[in-house]
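Please predict the structure of the following assembly.
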Amino acid sequence: MSSDGAQRDGAEQGETGGEAAEGRTVRVVLVDDHRMFRTGVQAEIGETGRTGVEVVGEAADVDQALTIITATRPEVVLLDVHLPGGGGVEVLRRCAAMMTDAERPVRFLALSVSDAAEDVIGVIRGGARGYVTKTITGTDLVDAIFRVADGDAVFSPRLAGFVLDAFASSDAPPIDEDLDRLTQREREVLRLIARGYAYKEIAKQLFISVKTVESHVSAVLRKLQLSNRHELTRWAAARRLV
Amino acid sequence: MTTAPPRAETSYAPAPDPDDPPVRKLYRSADGRLLGGVARGLAGHLGLPVSWVRIVFLALFMADGMGALLYAAFWFFVPLGVGGVEHRQPAPADARRRLLRHRPDKGQVFALIALLIGASIVASRFQLGQADGYLWPVLLIGAGVALVWRQADNSRRAQWLELGRRKALLPMVRGAAGVLLVGVGVTGIVVLQGSVRHLGSVLQAALAVVVGIALLAGPYLVRMTQDLSEERLMRIRAQERAEVAAHVHDSVLHTLTLIQRNADHPREVARLARAQERELRAWLYKPEGRGKEEDEEPATLAEAVRKAAAEVEDDHGVPIEVVVVGDCPLDEPLGAQMQAAREAMVNAAKYGGEGGAVQVFAEVEGRTVFVSVRDRGPGFDLDAVPEDRMGVRESIIGRMERHGGTARLRSAPEGGTVVELEIERAAPEGEI
């Protein structure tokens, strides 16, 4: 998504509108097992000129991540998918309570070098609010951090492609017919994201507001976590609920 | 060991390998053996035809059973090797295949029968039945021990070939048969010693001892087998790691060197890095065997789109992000669409590449195939292009229309150009 477009998106969002967004600070924890990469991200964020992102902690594996997240309670965790000690999914699983915390929810943005479908879908199912690859520019990353901090979702075009693909191929089994599927509008939004449009451009194209686009995307994420009964069963089994 | 099977006669000519290392160790041959592979191993070691060695053994066997003793000694003490010494290279794969579907071939059965006949001749000649009462039990024990030993032999061979999934039932039956034979032999000796009266209590005591040992050693044995399988797993992991390391060394390090040398040419650096990234990704995340035969003609839409994007990316040094939803086999109209899409990508890379990555999206929905190519360049006005410039009109729009599809070009209001290509698939046979 184009940087200036996204920045203006931020300005259009209700309570953080206008200059207030500039004064706001988002506390971020970086979880990645490569020190070089963590340093690189810090530098990139510093270079973007928007000082609103403050890195309050770093972690290199699952246990460290848990400790630092519990201690600092950041608003956003930049989470690598491949981590020693169980991977990003394990961090998400153990932080499940913090994600749903009503007062100060911790939100996760997956930041990975891999854009393989199982990695992407895995962390989204785990509860991450977005997924960006490590090729992202600093400006886009800061935008994504702000967006996730505000409770919105960030979809990369590739991620949207995976979701579309998953729903296209699940046309055959009639089991999940009655459970919530993506609506026509949500698929339309996903399709435009997959084609590389920014949220603002999508809004213009579909004659809806950016806020509506974001709510569609959030709905997709929500549905994606448990897209059908089969998935529900697996999810429950994995957490020893049944 | 009377006759060698015909295939062995022909295929085992003593042809000493010129590259053979000078120090040769004696191994029993696991490949093409009749009994223990002793004769074959010796033949390979001495450079003689295997049938000669067999005849010598047979002759010695007739002379008071010397051959049998010798053979047994070799069998016990010479380790098992893989393949005959004559042909080392093809042996592992061959032996593995033999192991996988191992059935007693005719030669082996024949050899066993011959052995039995020979044994009975020897037995009758020496009138062992009457001479010594202990001999039969001893023979039985010997047979049992041989059975169990051969067993160990096989498992060692299997370990050699790292063949984890061998059939568990047959070895167990054989092991049990060996133990039974030894047991019968021992009992025979006990009976012959005249201590039949105590047989019951002796058996009970023996059983108690065995159970006690099993109880004591059981957990230890279990742990040991677990350790062993864990160790095997670690070895497999290590091998995988080594393969990754080799790949990273070969391609990634070389590319990094190239990048260092071209540090002054940002475009070239970007091109190298993109190409290497794509290759590494294909190697890491794609299923086995894919991404290695880049030169082959793509058979499906997804492959074709990715290939075209990769080539344009390499040629122009502009990153192209590809998203493909669904897939279908490539037919003629789709081929035309791919060419049009490629042209659009080239245009986007040439004129719109400065604004950021070019985005390519392809979707198969039912019978409709949709491709969009989007750049963030200065935009494009078809009417402003002179009449004589045919690139867009012919290569993209004209080509699509000739094949019954549509092409739309427009400038996005936010900057950049969007090319949308839509076409119906021709053959409905490959229905999804």
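The CA atoms of residues 80 and 148 of chain A lie 16 Å apart. Residues 1-21, 172-178 of chain A have pLDDT under 50 and may be disordered.
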